[in-house]
Structure formats: C-alpha cells, structure tokens
Amino acid sequence: MKKIAPRQDDGGGGDCTPLVVTNNCGETIYPGIVIQSGDGPPSLGFELQPGDTNEQCVSKDWQGRIWGRTNCSFNDDGTGPNGGGGGRACGTGDCGGIVECKATGEVPVTLAEFTLNAGDGQTYYDISLVDGYNLPMAIVKRDVHNASLDDIPPNLTNPSCVATAGELASQDYDPYSSGDFLGTNSSFPLPFDSNVSDSQVASWCPWALQVTVPSEPEGGVYTYPDTNVERPIFDPCYSACARYNSDQDCCNGRYNSPTACQPSEYSKAAKAVCPDAYSYAFDDTTSTFIIPAGAGFEVIFCPGGRSTTILSSEADQLQELQDTGSVSGMVVYAPAQERIPDGMNWMRHLRLGY
C-alpha cells in the first residue's frame, strides 16, 4: 500500500486532527471533500489509485463530507474534463468537472459526514445514503494518542456499508482468523449483518432509481422487478429524494417531521443492505454515531467484508457512552451530555441548539 504524504495546514499551530482516505477498490477513484465549517484539509480532491492512502489534517471543530468519484478523466491540470470543454469529468460524484472540489458531488454518492465538535463536547458522524449510493464505504476511528478516546472499544465506532455486487463477503464471514479488520480484532469483533445475500445486494436498488436503467426488451415491456434482466455490476442508485425531489421523499414542507415523513421503498431497501447507514432524513436514531470529541478518522472505500449492525447490536453500550463517557467499566473522559430527543434529526439538533 502506498501512502501519500500528509499535507498539514501551516497555520494550524499543531492543531492536526487526522483525516485519512483509503482506496481498497480495484479501480482508481477521486475522493472529494467539502468543508461546511472549521478548517478543512489543504486538498479537497485528489487521485487515489487502488491500495493508496491519503493523509491530511483538519481542525478539531471541522464539519464536512467525503465521497468517492468514479470513472474520472481530467485534463492535465485538473481544471476540466479530458479533451477540453466543460461538463462532467466523472461518471459518479462529479463536482464541476475539476479535481479540487468546491462543492458537494453530483448524486448519487455514498457520503461520510462528520461534525467533529458540535459545541457539546461530542463528535457526530455517519455513512449517508440519503443522496444515493455509488461505492461501499467504512469509517474507522483513528488513534490520536489520547487514552480516553483510544480506550473506546473499536467495535462501537467503525461502521461499514457494503451494497455492491461482488464486494460482499459470505454470510458466515469471519475476518479475524487472519488478523485485524477495520481497526477491530477478535477481542472486540464487529457485528455484521448475516442475512443479506449477494443476490440481494445485486438487486436492492429499486428499478426506476438505477443510474443506468435497462431498456425495455424489443416488442414488449418487462415486469418489475424482472430477474431475467441482468443489472450491471457497478450499479449506482439514486435515493428517492435525489431522483424525484418531492416534499414527501425529502421530508420537506408538511412532511418535515418524524411522524409525517416515513421511509420510502428506497429507504427500506437501503437500510436492509446497510443497517448502520442513513437512509432518509429522519433516520438519525439508527444511523448517527456519537462519541466524545477529539478523535481522528479514516474513510475507506471498498472495505470488503459485510455491512455492520453496530447501532442495533450494541445500542446499550453506545447509549452509555453517549450519556456518561464510559463503556463497561472503561473510563472515557467526556462530560455527560443531554441526550438528543428521540426522532430529532441530529443536524437539526446542532442547528437549533436543543
């Protein structure tokens, strides 16, 4: 594995929270990063070949998003698509046809979302499929040589979403027979979903939400879903909100509440294949990870293995960590915080100050 040298902010005064991005996919990708607040990394877009890792720094109060761009072709200086002219340079996740992103990528994309310090001493993060799905992703908490954070069991903090055909491990998958996996080990094993099969992963995206919908057969119309029509291996999927932009699908207008906005067919399918991922706007109680502030993170594309079920399998320990800063006798320094009211979107919680 080749590591790209860390690029630190010269004005950071040693305030370096690790933000690492790794590509375990079989193809080159171009990760994109957008800064929502705080001091972000110097590079907001870069090439990452298979097996490569990019290490950068962000401020302790950084808030932002990371996603992967696929099938990209840029000109030599990265200011536009290869071949000249304007338009898109990437098949998915494009951000204005340039390498260094200045805005969030075009949907559909799998997102890693971070608020490193919300002002309450907590870090909030998640894998989001609210804008759709294009690549498998995992988030791994990185050691920062702070015993109070490093002692948090890693099987509580490192979610994974694998919803691509051919990337899913077998249903009896055990990664620990050959060593560690996603920052965890046999002493603190990740809980994996064992129900979803590879055939389900290959067909979970609702028919009309596929980026490339197969054309109708000559002389007839296939029924939905038609298992005789083979889907592509790389099958990015729009969310219902991203495709239709309706108030009902996007939880806007009169649907802007947990009771009024219910999961769509897409949301239910996404949650089935990635139980720890956000699937729609009010899915926060089963999608948001909350730990004491101060940790760094690594985003891994195509992590392998299977999707995790941390938030449901380890709910009691996670609530204990959020409320008291301690887990099963392990002392984690953090003041007890007020619990986010059930059903309240965590981003709304941060914005409204509840």
Automatic annotation (TrEMBL):
Transmembrane segments: none annotated. InterPro entries: Osmotin/thaumatin-like_sf, Thaumatin. Gene3D superfamilies: Thaumatin. Keywords: Disulfide bond. SMART domains: THN (SM00205). Disulfide bonds join 25-302, 72-90, 95-101, 161-274, 205-237, 241-250, 251-261. This is Osmotin, thaumatin-like protein. It comes from Aulographum hederae CBS 113979.
